Amino acid sequence: MSSGTTFLLEVNPRIPRRLARLEELASDLWYSWDRPTRHLFSRLHPSLWDAVGHSPKAFLKRVDEQRLLQAADDPLFLNTFNRVLSAFDSYRDEPLRRNGSEWLRQNDLVAYFCAEFGFHESMPIYSGGLGILAGDHCKSASDMRLPFVGVGLLYRQGYFLQTIDADGNQHATYTDSDFDDLPVAPVQGRDGGEVLVPVDLPGRRVLVKVWQARVGHVKLVLLDTDIEANAAPDRHITHRLYGGNRTDRLEQELVLGIGGVRALAALGLAPTVWHINEGHAAFLVLERMRELVASGVAFAAALEAVASNTVFTTHTPVPAGHDHFDEEVIRAHFKDFCGELGIDGRELLALGRMDAAGDFNMTTLAVRASRFQNGVSRIHGGVSSRILAGLWPQLEPGENPLQYVTNGVHVPTFLAQEWADQFDRYLGYEWSQQITNAAFWEQIDQIPDHVFWSVRQSLKGHLLHLVRHRVAQQHLRNNGSEAHLDRLLRFCDPSNPNTLVVGFARRFATYKRATLLFHDLDWLRRLICDEHRPVLFLFAGKAHPADVPGQDLIRRIHHIASMPEFEGRVLLLENYDLRLARRLVSGVDVWLNNPVYPLEASGTSGMKAGINGVLNLSVRDGWWDEGYDGHNGWAIKPVSESLDEGRRAAEEARTLYELLQDQVIPAWFTRNEMGFSHHWVRMAKRSIATLLPRYSATRMVNEYVGRFYLPATRQWRRYSEQGFAGARSVADWKAHVRACWHSVRLRRLDVAPKRIAFGEGLRLELAVFLDGLDPADVVVELVMARHTDVERHRQDSTHRFEPDGTRTAEGEHRLALSLTPEMCGKLEYRVRVYPHHELLTHPLEMGLIRWL
Asked: Can you give the pTM of this predicted structure?
């Protein structure tokens, strides 16, 4: 028997005039890092706030009008509302640029492209660390008043919702977002209609709708193909974050890169810096070159011009992790585009080819068409230099142009409000303007130890309250009994948080080794199954639906957590999201991270924990190799990479157990007469003092401004002025150098001495054959260092030879160098020649070098 048709009707409340600006607050992602704003919405209807995923815009569409009317007449609510508006207006109206952004000119603009952006759980267009980092980059750019626009994709389906069943199996559920519930709005053109930009795909043209979100002082431009004008398959391009097959992924990246450039042009925005955050957006360089070629600039000069102000950041620590596509698929998608570039398919493919047999690699394309490249930690910079060494084959990896900028986190987003309140009280209200001032944070000792401990315990209580709620939901959904639930939660008492809580929360990928803790279960039992010294391990994270080994890790953790001796001592929390992340990084006592070295590009979760006084217990990889100082946490020294996987895991698990047994657990449970651990508080204060100023996103963005953005704007002006004369000159010069370079050679004319006295001079004479190049086209230099195998003791120095204006009988140019060594002992030196032009961004950017 049919029950008839169900019709849906949404009834929206009318917002009282007194509260009209609630809509303004709901439409600015400023709320994602301003807790008082979020609390304002929450207090109107706490259960509805949770039900709508903490989305202010969705909340205002569904809250009962009577509650709004009551709030409009509530003096306490109005007082809070007015304070929030005052803070919002003060933030929005302050025009002052700071922390380096004032170095840029008024007409400068940084365009930051990324495939995902993570601002808040209410804006589900992110999957993990890359997106959260991109969101923090935008937030800090806003704080600095940086001229900045983000560019990404607006997905109907962000990353999946995760449930874990009674057997430990992960289940992924995708839900469609209602864009009316998100803090985004379609961009309107001058005619009042929607702004649409075209992107050509094989045999068809796809129209891309342009949306915009406001993130404090910066804009976020988002692209969407789900419009009626497109065919069904093309509407699906931006449907799911990282969804579909390889062709779907390619077409997403075409929309992001090519469509993103066109969207900015349609909005009248002319960036002077283009930042590609990971290789997904690298096609933007081809669109920028196409525009220049269409204006009459030759392809080679267009490449130099585009590269001059393009910044590329890689986050991938293994070669297989870089996006790549079959070359025939690239040919098919760029058949007509090549004609517009004035090149053939072979030349296009060469831009993305690392070696003769490889696919078209997006990282390779991004590196070849940029002059500023970086990894995201010191270790990762070295790893990336080795991975990409083939792009500069004549250079040692350590000398190629790839640098590093260690990631950072947005402090206002991830610092608990309780800490902000204590900083106001003991450090003064100016602390928020001293984020990067390391000397200022030495004042953390002004917070009394007992107050510090109390805050830490309070934050843990908040976390345990949320843990109890989530575990109960998960357990009862899986038909577990209430009696068993009590057993599971016996160490999660928010009113008595005297359990040592260790957190591990991140993507479940095999290299992150979530199960290293369970390598020796007998040892683990002895460590944590002590009723007088209770220890609780919290695990959370998602495995990609296609990552079977990652899902096996979840099942393994579930299995261990279900063993009678570990029940209640190991808990696995489902559906890790930003809300849970904020509670975890502020509420646990210890943050555990034990990846396979050197596969952690940077990692930022430990930074978020560290700024909240949580102590890191981590392998010295990624950021922690730089952040650990011996007193602000504990470090697991990686064993030799030459050992097999099993041996490495065994050795590093042993170090983990020893640290837990001998240092971590005793430090926590050794209490003074006031009931807290003085040693623990001292380390936790050290964690905040050393990590907060050094690993804030403000410091990170400031580095990008000083080292990349500002030089990129200068290079762009040098290359683009006078009809791109600089770009044309460099392109022609590079072509000439490449044509001659195979014949360039050096030989020594003097006899090398074996020994000299300290203070005695040394004169070296060379002959260099340049085959048509001028001496001004090259640098010939001596590289001197201590003769040692210990890299940090080498103390390299370089000394340039100068031509004497004469030639040998063979037509070689004579050069000489007079040098007085400033070190005693055994020294080694080598002589080299490489191309030189005053407009080069990096002295070795061509990757050409000859050694004597």
From this structure: 0.96
